[in-house]
């Protein structure tokens, strides 16, 4: 039975705990604020796809340090992607990493893999684009909408065969658990495709404290604004050599908003962080994107404005957090 340590047991982490457990893996979740609830009752999931009141009760630890000593086949990171934070996620998960462990990143953003590859140069690094509208509404209780899809591949794309094999094994467990996993030889274009949605909806909804559908309907020009950011991301992806990423991908990401939870819309994951004064994935999702655009000489005025505003909000939230502490 594959042994999996799940780090970041919030919205995405709890659903993946469920899928991987169903798929036959033994999953241990690293829980922090929801430790007591999950230890006692597990996660309770209301899913538009799999049904209401689903319960899954993993083994629980408080830290990766507590999980030291077990030979984990996979350590999955489903925390918010905070490249450059201190301590870094690689530092935090390090006690649980053995030579055989594959590290799976189920996180939004672009160029988030580098710090893991540097910290664990001989381990398989598996990078994933996650489609899963989900929110932890209270500790251990999670609501999930109509979409579920995971796109994965090695980082870098030209990894050794053993690392490629570990991606396929992970996908097989996921699929056996009734999840939808697609393996890609090079997953980076898939990450750029996902970034189209996250670099636009996430910061704009966080700045406006709105559901996606409300942002879309707020003014006659909203769609133009959101779509304009998406097209800037397309241009950057193309400048990076991913010429298969084209405007029709932006159209599809636009359409998905109407499908996710029809009529009601969703709060993208950054909104909860904005409202609760938690650090937002500003650098992983927007900052890195703007920096890559600059390196490639691509003009991205809408993304630059978005980065300025969301960075300022993140900083003012940090000050408010410090004042409250
Ligand atoms: N939610 C969504 O709809 C989607 C999210 N994503 C991406 O998936 C990733 C996860 O998002 P999401 O599930 O929403 O995030 P959540 O905020 O719901 O969950 C993150 C979890 O990580 C935990 N965590 C963070 N740092 C530590 C630490 N040092 N030790 C232990 N636990 C820690 C948090 O614990 P604590 O509660 O104690 O802070 C929290 O439970 C992000 O990259 C996001 O962008 C992708 C697609 C959809
Ligand atoms: C938009 C969404 C829900 C897509 O799955 C997402 O990635 C997020 O909320 O961060």
Automatic annotation (TrEMBL):
Q: Which Pfam families does the entry mention?
A: ApbA (PF02558), ApbA_C (PF08546)
According to the entry, every stretch annotated as the Ketopantoate reductase N-terminal domain falls at 4-156
Q: Which residues cross the membrane?
A: none
State the InterPro entries in the record. Answer: 6-PGluconate_DH-like_C_sf, 6PGD_dom2, ApbA, KPA_reductase, KPR-Related, KPR_N, NAD(P)-bd_dom_sf
Example GO biological process term? pantothenate biosynthetic process
The UniProt catalytic activity note for this protein reads: (R)-pantoate + NADP(+) = 2-dehydropantoate + NADPH + H(+)
EC main group:
oxidoreductase
> Which keywords annotate this record?
NADP, Oxidoreductase
Endpoints of the signal sequence: none
Q: What is its EC number?
A: 1.1.1.169
Is Secreted included in the keywords of this UniProt record? Answer: no
Q: Where is the Ketopantoate reductase C-terminal domain?
A: 186-313
The reply on keyword NAD is no
A Gene Ontology cellular component where this protein is annotated is: cytoplasm
For this UniProt entry, the molecular function terms from Gene Ontology, in alphabetical order, are:
2-dehydropantoate 2-reductase activity
Q: Give the protein's biological function.
A: Catalyzes the NADPH-dependent reduction of ketopantoate into pantoic acid.
Family under the similarity heading: Belongs to the ketopantoate reductase family.
Name the UniProt record assigns to this protein: 2-dehydropantoate 2-reductase
Say which species the protein is native to: Glarea lozoyensis (strain ATCC 20868 / MF5171)
What is the organism lineage in this UniProt record? Answer: Eukaryota, Fungi, Dikarya, Ascomycota, Pezizomycotina
